[in-house]
Specification:
Number of helices of chain A: 15
Number of helices of chain B: 8
CATH superfamily of the largest domain in chain A: Mur-like, catalytic domain
Number of strands of chain B: 12
Strand order of the largest sheet of chain A: 2-3-1-4-5-6
Largest sheet of chain A: 6 strands, parallel
CATH superfamily of chain B: Class I glutamine amidotransferase (GATase) domain
Radius of gyration of chain A: 21 Å
Number of strands of chain A: 17
Number of domains of chain A: 2
Helix content of chain A: 25-40%
Distance between the termini of chain B: 67 Å
CATH architecture of chain B: 3-Layer(aba) Sandwich
Largest interface: A-B, 45 and 48 residues
Structural class of chain A: alpha/beta
Shape of chain A: globular
Helix content of chain B: 25-40%
Strand content of chain A: 15-25%
CATH architecture of the largest domain in chain A: 3-Layer(aba) Sandwich
Number of domains of chain B: 1
Strand content of chain B: 25-35%
Oligomer: heterodimer
Structural class of chain B: alpha/beta
Chain lengths: 409, 258
């Protein structure tokens, strides 16, 4: 351990920055990954060196981490410069890039891929770790069991003073946060539980769980959901001694949870509650998602989904005003598999349009559910053919940027 | 068979999910097309109820000995003797054999419904295209994500022969009304006529002809793509998100440079 970064780290950082500028200059990208890749290859201890003198918050979860990181970064930015990875670059190279491009003493608010949490927490020694939710994922090839185990190892082994901001409503998170190292404390957030299929059994003992209006409970009683210190109900967010009314700028019920985690995390990073509320409230667009784009007689918003829980939440957009368009592009062999894990209620979904390279996969799933749907392979055509008014477009990971780029051009 | 076909999803939380519970949806849909009612029961513990079809799935990454134990004490062998059709996918396939080896080399007994032993091996992932050896089932489209290596016994009858991957050899195992396979997708959603064949065993006669619907287009599309690009990413452009973004951005399309 040295007080200042080694020459090797400083050289690697300089080269990484140069590559980021080059990447931007030639239009290859925003430099959010490549600069970190270069620096990380040249100086494997760069992440440790670049986070030694800052406060770091790591934010992770199966769903909502990019949005929550963005909102948290906006809130922390009310205090000064922030190092953050806005575009969902959430592995070592993405984190390094975010740190390289910010002043050396700026607080860092970083999104972290769930399975990389142990390695990245060890390197960045975060003062806040935000654990949002845990549910099944197919496309990344990492099972829920492995991810949960990874989180448990972090929480049990933290060797520096830190606060875990954790979802009190998600039994898988509650279990992941016990037992915990004496050097960490937990701030419980009522972040909600929307995907129930992985917690029909208690994660701790395997006994049957009861899920009703009162919430989740284990029949054997060994895993109890804690009382949340931060909650949101009917748009009113409440924390220790504080409360405020929130007004979301976009449909999407999960955004309440994202805002709650962002505010709780920001307050933990020293931001005043009122400042955090104002900053989070002002976020209208997250990497091309949520923000309304006017196209002809339509107000178009994009929502991205990756896994069964995400699909399940996003399909509830059918209850919001406007039309619903589903767009899926190729994303590996498992791209359409999550659709078959989601229960679809044809009456609640109503009429939808399916689109994208994988429109046939969407159509096959909706056909099996008895849903009334229209097929328009080109996403922009699908939007244009919707009745005038709001159009909510659910896209998978690979469709997000192509659709966003075409919408904004 | 009673008027309502009972489909039991057996102990799905025991092993990591991989979408195989969707096979129940696929069967329900193929029955509904013929006006046949069905119900799906998800069983997480205790004995297996009377069933026309038992589905067992998930990744063979963890939970196999417990899954085998639950199926054994839950009465799977008795359900098979009563005439139930069984589809085991990946973890569900591995526990239906004579025995299986876990990651640390310990061998556990299986349900002994298929003449296959399983050894622990390197991860096998990627798209699969296979010619089904059951009559009236067209080329299968699916994907692999497993570690077990099947060692076939002398009486084993394979389900299919792989064309993608080229080294794939035979796939799965069929013994009477018990089918085991590594194919995910969910396999019955991706291959509706395989679902129909299995349901024909339940109803005692082949089902009336019905179009594959949109799933048929999906199946043919994937077979075409996977034969050309066995990575399963449907072409180079989609192999890496960062590369895809560069190659598909307007700026990089030849002739449209601003």
């Amino acid at each position: 351990m040295v007080a200042t970064p080694s020459r090797r780290v400083r050289a690697a950082v300089a080269l990484g920055k140069a590559v980021a500028s080059l990447s931007k200059a030639v239009g290859a990208g925003r430099g959010t990954v490549i600069s970190g890749t270069v620096t990380g290859r040249l100086a494997p201890d760069a992440l440790r060196a670049l986070t030694r003198d800052r406060r770091v918050a790591l934010i992770t979860g199966t769903n909502g981490k990019t949005t929550t990181t963005w909102m948290t970064a906006e809130a922390v930015a009310t205090q000064g410069a922030v190092a953050t990875s806005r575009a969902g670059a959430n592995m070592a190279s993405g984190l390094l890039s975010a740190l390289l491009l910010a002043p050396p003493d700026a607080d860092a608010v970083l999104e972290v891929d769930e399975i990389y949490l142990p390695a990245l927490a060890a390197d960045t020694r975060p003062s806040v770790i935000t654990l949002m939710n845990l549910s099944r994922e197919f496309t990344r090839g990492v099972s829920l069991a492995r991810t949960t185990q990874a989180w448990r190892s972090v929480v049990a082994g933290v060797e520096w003073p830190s606060t875990i901001v954790a979802n009190a409503d998600d039994p898988a998170v509650v279990w992941a946060v016990s037992p915990r190292s004496p050097s960490c404390e937990v701030v419980w957030v009522g972040g909600g539980l929307t995907w129930l299929e992985d917690v029909r059994r208690c994660p701790a003992c395997g006994a049957a769980a009861v899920i009703d209006e009162a919430g989740w409970r284990c029949e054997s009683g060994d895993l109890r959901l804690p009382q949340a210190r931060w909650t949101v109900e009917d748009g009113v967010i409440r924390g220790p001694g504080v409360q405020a009314q929130l007004h979301p700028t976009s449909p999407g019920g999960w955004l309440w949870s994202n805002m709650l985690f962002a505010i709780a995390t920001a307050v933990q990073m020293g931001v005043a509650f009122d400042d955090a509320v104002r900053a989070v409230q002002a976020v209208e667009d997250v990497d091309g998602r949520y923000g309304a784009v006017t196209r002809g007689r339509h107000q178009v918003r994009l929502f991205m989904v990756k896994n069964p829980a995400g699909w399940s939440q996003a399909l509830a957009l059918a209850g919001s005003p406007g039309s619903l368009v589903l767009v899926m592009d190729q994303f590996g062999v498992k791209d359409a598999t999550p659709l078959w894990d989601v229960s679809i209620d044809a009456d609640r979904l109503g009429r939808v349009t399916v689109s994208g390279h994988r429109h046939a996969d969407l159509a096959a799933r909706l056909e099996a559910a008895g849903v009334d749907f229209t097929v328009v392979p080109d996403p922009l055509d699908a939007i244009d053919r919707a009745p005038p008014g709001p159009v909510n477009v659910i896209v998978n990971h690979s469709a997000l940027h192509p659709v966003r780029d075409r919408l904004s051009s | 068979m009673t008027d309502v076909v009972t489909i039991v999803v057996a102990y799905p939380l025991c092993t990591p999910a991989q979408g195989d519970e969707g096979n129940a949806l696929a069967l329900t849909y193929r029955l509904r097309v013929r006006g046949v009612a069905s119900r799906v029961l998800v069983v997480d513990e205790g004995p297996l109820p009377h069933a026309d079809v038992v589905l067992v799935g998930g990744l063979d990454e963890s939970g196999l000995p417990r899954l085998a134990d639950l199926l054994d004490t839950g009465g799977l062998t008795e359900r098979v003797a009563d005439g139930a059709v069984v589809l085991g996918v990946n973890a569900g396939y591995v526990v239906l054999g004579r025995d299986f080896e876990d990651a640390d080399g310990t061998t556990h007994p299986g349900l002994d419904l298929l003449d296959v032993s399983f050894r622990h091996g390197p991860e096998q992932t990627g798209p699969v295209v296979a010619e089904c050896l059951l009559p009236d089932v067209p080329t299968l489209s699916a994907y692999w994500s497993h570690r077990a290596m099947a060692v076939h016994g002398p009486t084993n009858r394979p389900l299919a022969r792989c064309t993608v991957p080229a080294h794939g050899g035979t796939e799965g195992s069929v013994a009477g009304r018990v089918v085991g396979t590594f194919l995910h997708g969910p396999v019955l959603a991706r291959n509706p006529l395989l679902a129909d064949t299995i349901l024909g065993w339940v109803t005692g006669a082949p089902l009336s002809a019905a179009s594959e619907g949109w799933a048929g287009l999906v199946r043919r599309q994937r077979i075409g793509e996977d034969a050309k690009d066995p990575s399963g990413w449907g072409g180079l452009v989609y192999s890496r998100p960062s590369l895809r973004r560069v190659l598909t951005s307007r700026r990089y399309r030849i002739g449209s440079r601003r």
